[in-house]
Design a protein that fits this description.
It contains 2 helices and no strands. It has helices at residues 11-22, 35-70.
């Protein structure tokens, strides 16, 4: 188990952190400790959450159009 404040995150832990941040789950088991890391994470989350919302919206439009075409 990784300890908060340990800066030696592996690739898997970094991907996990990105996923947890972008899905807004935020367990708190991994978090940035430096000021730069915290500021970066704020912008990363804002941009990433917006991007995920856009992608899901576009997928919804595609599924809706396919459902209407079947009728």
């Amino acid at each position: 188990s990784q300890v908060i404040g340990d800066s030696s995150w592996g690739y898997g832990n970094a991907v996990y952190f990105c996923y947890i941040t972008l899905t807004t789950i935020g367990y708190g088991d991994y978090r940035p400790e430096t000021r730069f890391g915290k500021v970066f994470d704020i912008f990363y989350a804002l941009m990433g959450i917006g991007l995920i919302a856009y992608v899901l919206s576009e997928q919804g439009k595609i599924f809706s159009e396919k459902a209407k075409a079947k009728e």
